[in-house]
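Handout, section B. The chain below has 306 residues.
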Amino acid sequence: MQKPEKYLLLCLVLLLCSCKEATEKPDTSAKISCDSQRIISFAPALTEILFALGLGDRVIGVSNFCRYPPEVQSLPKAGGLLDPNLEAIVRLRPDCVIVYANHTSVLDLLDRLKIPALVASGDDLPEILQTIGLLGATFNRQQQAEKMVTEMKNRLEQLRRALQPEHPLPSVMVIVWRERGQGTLKNITVAGNDQFYSEMVTIAGGKLLPDNPKLEYPTLGAEGILQLNPDLIIEIAPELQEKTEKLLEQTLNDWRLLPELTAVKKQNIFLITDDYAAIPGPRSILLAEKIAAILTPFVQNNEASH
């Protein structure tokens, strides 16, 4: 598997992480001091929050997949959520490690090593805001956390106020993974009842398809997509961020295999290649605003026609 594929698949795993399930691990967060100077973060979103709160100088290690802000790329790597690096963690001597609830491999290891773990959540926007508050309270950055949360809420409210709910909403399908640029439409995973992309689309003024799925990230075939027939398709493709225009064009051209699809007929296929698009963290507001910018012309057209 190529590195870009690994990167995207890990991001999707992070999005699929459910932090709502109860954990049987002992509560070690009580041992964490607000003055902890040696912190390891095991998720890109958590790393971003720490740096945004001004705690970057305390982060002495990150997961293999933390890439933002740029300075984290030079930090020691402590492994992945499925394969934590025992030697690296011991060598770094952390005061605490920040994880999500279902990072069971990491939590098992920390339990054996008697290293305090701070367990966070981040499935949806409310949980992202909650985690910002948690890290702010834990490490004595309450003022910074409150400011960040307030700014995000204000920007989200601006998007909501711009909506005209009495008019029909454009239907949107969000593709979170597929084989891209191969001249095929295979292994298509879409956002369903995931409470992240679904919420983003709603805030931005769209109606997500499928609208009542049993799965958070269902897999659809070409026939299923044709049956739903969305007005727009938005592809979340951070693995293409640094790729050539030719490859981006090839990715869009894959959809020519479904010429009868409304989104294809009207050339309403959009790629979002920003790295934050697959990271449920403080930059999620940028994704909501980008989706809103994509949908605005269609919402306005619906208004004008009524």
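Note. The first strand starts at residue 39 and ends at 41. Compare this with the example in section A.
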